[in-house]
Amino acid sequence: MRKPENLAPEKHDVAHAAGPVPHPSGGPIDLAFKGIDALLALMLLTMVAMVLSNVVLRYGFSTGIASSEELSRTLFIWLTFIGAVVATREGTHLGVDSLLRRLPRKGQLAMVFVSESIVLACCVLLFRGTWSQHEVNATSVSLITSMPLIWIYGVAYLTSVGIGLLVLAKLWRIVTGTASDKDIFGAAADHLPVQARSGDGP
To answer: Tell me: the pLDDT tens digits for 90-138?
Structure first.
């Protein structure tokens, strides 16, 4: 009597279809980014509260808070620049991967390496530009609150360093062969066909 055929795929086939094991994040890093998420939420809440309060005071009582517009604008800048760091870690920046999906895995890694290297160069330029303007911004103040402008433009330090470190970590994973599908496709990796994730292409 013939034994039933084993329909379960081999272990190496499963590993190939699923792609490399995602690179685990450290506990302290996760906690740090949770704190950043909470900070961003607080900034957004504060910004909405200041703008709403100013609208109510202006149209209801013909008055307003003079510094509200300036402070809310500053919070919006910080929200955008710090949020860019979070988006980089989560892989949620906009990207076009039509060509990337059709390449073999080595080609995908090569393209990501080149693109991330360009991003790293931009981070260096951003940090250098902010540094060159540091003295001017530190000695200049805003019109209403008299806040040094470095508190506005200085957020570029955090953004350039934060994104730069994340990019360096990704480049290291590519060089050492531990890059995951998320390193290649970002957050879209969870929604790609198995063929595209494994780099087999049509």
So the answer is: 988 888 888 888 999 999 999 999 999 999 999 999 999 999 999 999 9
Smallest CA-to-CA distance from 51 within 25, 23, 71, 80 is with 71
pTM of the model: 0.78
Answer for the pair 185, 109: CB distance below 8 angstroms, yes or no.
no
CA dist 154 → 87, 101, 137, 176 (Å): 19, 38, 8, 34
The pLDDT tens digits of the residues spanning 32-69 come to: 899 999 999 999 999 999 999 988 988 888 888 888 88
**DSSP conformational letter for 191:** G
Q: How far is CA 195 from CA 66, 101, 113, 198, 202, in A?
A: 57, 8, 21, 5, 8
